[in-house]
Design brief:
single chain, mainly beta, about 0% helix
Length: about 120
């Protein structure tokens, strides 16, 4: 079992920045993929980015490339999502997730554990 707790969401003006954190517990991470997804009202959950815990390789959705950056902290068992140049269309609930099967993944079904989500609202 893996428990994930997101934090760092809030209200920010367009063009601003936020950093989301996702702390994992219940399992020492080694070769998992850590992903971020988001879901806006009335829309399906969509992939934002992912990082391979062991190697640090990252992948991003085209909509956030060059604006969002993922990183991880081994000592804290935590993954971060740095979000810069935020736009109103980034408004959503952001979820982090862990895949115990894949080292890097971008599909919902590839992830086994999910956090409860944190709200990000970007005002224009």
């Amino acid at each position: 079992q893996v428990q994930l707790v997101e934090s760092g969401g809030g209200l920010v003006q367009a063009g601003g920045s936020l950093r989301l954190s996702c702390a994992a517990s219940g399992r020492t991470l080694s070769r998992e993929a850590l992903g971020w997804f988001r879901q806006a009202p009335g829309k399906e959950r969509e992939f934002v980015g992912a990082i391979s815990w062991s190697g640090g390789t990252t992948i991003y959705a085209d909509s956030v490339k060059a604006r969002f950056t993922m990183s991880r902290d081994f000592a804290k068992n935590t993954v971060y999502l740095q979000m810069d140049s935020l736009k109103s269309e980034d408004t959503a609930v952001y979820y982090c997730a862990v895949s115990t099967t894949f080292v890097l993944a971008s599909k919902n079904y590839q992830y086994d554990y999910w956090g409860q989500g944190t709200q990000v609202t970007v005002s224009s």
